[in-house]
Known about the structure:
Membrane topology: Multi-pass membrane protein
Distance between the termini: 45 Å
Subcellular location: Cell membrane
GO cellular component, one term: plasma membrane
GO molecular function: hexosyltransferase activity
Helix content: 55-70%
Keywords: Cell membrane, Membrane, Transferase, Transmembrane, Transmembrane helix
Largest sheet: none
Amino acid sequence: MPSxxxxxxxxxxxxxxxxxxxxxxxxxAGSELIGGRSGRWTRLGSTALTPVGVVALVxxxxxxxxxxxxxxxxxxxxxxxxGSQYTHACYSDIPHLFAARGFSDGLVPYFxxxxxxxxxxxxxxxxxxxxxxxxxxTPGGSLQHREQMYWMVNAGMLMICAVIIAVCxxxxxxxxxxDGLLVALAPAFALTATINWDLLAVxxxxxxxxxxxxxxxxxxxxxxxxxxxxxxxxxFLLGPxxxxxxxxxxxxxxxxxxxxxVVSWLVVNLPVMALAPDGWxxxxxxxxxxxxxxxxxxxxxxxxxGESIEVSTVNTVSTLTTxxxxxxxxxxxxxxxxxxxxxxxxxxxxxxxxxxxKVYSPQYVLWLIPLAALARPRWRDFLIWQACEVMxxxxxxxxxxxxxxxxxxxxxxxxxxxxAIALHLLGTLYLCAVxxxxxxxxxxxxxxxxxxxxxxxxxxxxxxxAFVLGRAAHPPRHAHAAVEGPRVEWGxxxxxxxx
Length: 499
């Protein structure tokens, strides 16, 4: 039997958990499907139905629905010409690359040369390892059967990544585990999860954010290095860590994080770099040489003007623009009235990279979803953005159906696809704008309304400023003190600063 002290601690922890249905009107309305705003399930004593457990189960369910959405392709559309997989919006790179990148023939990534122009696998090393392990687990049979099984094996491995992402998002904000439902229920997450292998890098990045929130700086760096060995974008998170540590005077912590990232990246890459240099560098040369592609504002420009743009020009302009945007985010960090939260800056820098990039594949939304859930846990804004991303997801497949249907012109014409791209860009810019507003007006930040500083900030949570540009307010009390001291009782009424 638990002691009276244990019961008291459990009750205090339960009271300290923020329930979105008590502070978010959209979440409250949606909660009617599961028993109303009081959160009937959250009051059950079963450990299987803790907030994190519910988030994990929902993530599994949504991932399974995403697999069901791919059934037309799994059954026949992947193998009967390009058009059907586009009209059913169930395309995936995974089965096609099983043969196209030599896995069906037993070729070793980076070491064995491929037939055709690609020459070597164009993915970072850790993603290549993931792909190779999946090929080892794929049973034999006809090529079509093996392609189906290869997708299924990868889907199983990616499902594990999806649950890790949702659980890490739920645990990163100690008092806001229900925000993990934003990740688990995100429609774009379910639709794009098995298009490619991005979930591996996203899972490692989500785990890194969790480690940072627990003050485990070296583990954060190691995981960021591993994530960068799977996809390039996670390295951008070291930028926000740099400016936050600069403002807080935490140089030792930044050094440990950077050291961990560099060492873990080298451990993964050095063997391949030394033994198969041509195969190792293919990802980087392919990224540099790749032309303007789907989903970018660059594509709108070239289609509207009818003029091509040199790849070198696009690379230079997009790189300089990314650097300028990151510098602006850094200046915002040092000038904000209160030190921004890491999740806010992480979302902004990754979004900046995506917005100016020369390609936006539909699965890139996976990079932003867990960061958006931590940066701006408001259901209205999150769902507005998700609606834009779902429209883009449908738009690209309907456009490809149009371009492959010949004279039939079945699908979305060029002008319609340009509108889908614009919706994606505007939706992402909208979410960036509300995050920037929260940074400039921290009293509007729902995470901080109980007096917390940065519940997922680890060593930065509650730390005094050591360097600021201009006048900045003193940071609020530590998040743990906010839990134990006077706090807003969301159940007593409507959110006092409703948007």
